[in-house]
Amino acid sequence: MLPTPEEKCAVARRLILELEARDRQTFALAMKALGELEEDVRELRREAAKRNIEIFTEEEFAAKFKVSPSTIARERKAGRIEPLAMGQNIVRYSSLQFERAHEIFRARPKLVGRKRERKAS
User: Fold this and answer.
1) Per-residue pLDDT averaged across 86-109, rounded?
2) Number of domains forming the structure of the chain
3) Which residues partner with 56 through β-bridges?
């Protein structure tokens, strides 16, 4: 015997309620994980402050060297600058990475200067 439209609706409602419950659980777990990561960042900043170490986002770190954040990301992906380990998608740098970054950017030829030389030729 085939289910009636009312029975089909009841099944659909039950499935929707189950999915909504799972979504709420997933959201709660994600919010808990986010809170833990934020606490980790605060703890890292407190520890760094004790040691007189500054913590920077990729944008802040790039500004210190007057390069774009994409340049810092490219150097990070190439393995030339190693960020602090703070989770899968959280990238932070400390003042301890300054020396290595300074070596990289000091050794890089200025692209703007090379463009001018080509135009002058």
Assistant:
1) 78
2) 2
3) 93
